[in-house]
User: Which sequence fits this backbone?
């Protein structure tokens, strides 16, 4: 079948090996899962620590940006005459930008 999604053989319930000691039942991750968990390990540990300290979870993004040596990405700038990002169909200045002070530069 052309264009069909090809799934890897062996669903997770069948991914078992024998341990080095000869015991059956060692579950293993495919390369994709392993790569994901290696990539997500540090940020997830940081998230756990932030939550343990009672801080907001959103602080993780600030901490990761600081660790990478870059400034935190703030909210996206919206031109006052552009459509409002909320999808109302109004311009930003007549919707969510009503209480903002706009300066012409």
Assistant:
């Amino acid at each position: 079948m052309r264009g069909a999604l090809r799934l890897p053989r062996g669903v997770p319930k069948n991914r078992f090996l024998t341990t080095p000691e000869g015991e059956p039942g060692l579950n293993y991750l495919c390369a994709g899962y392993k790569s994901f968990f290696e990539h997500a390990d540090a940020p997830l540990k940081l998230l756990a620590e932030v939550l343990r300290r009672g801080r907001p979870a959103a602080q993780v993004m600030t901490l990761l940006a600081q660790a990478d040596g870059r400034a935190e990405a703030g909210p996206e700038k919206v031109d006052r005459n552009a459509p409002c990002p909320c999808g109302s169909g109004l311009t930003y200045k007549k919707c969510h930008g009503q209480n903002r002070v706009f300066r012409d530069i």
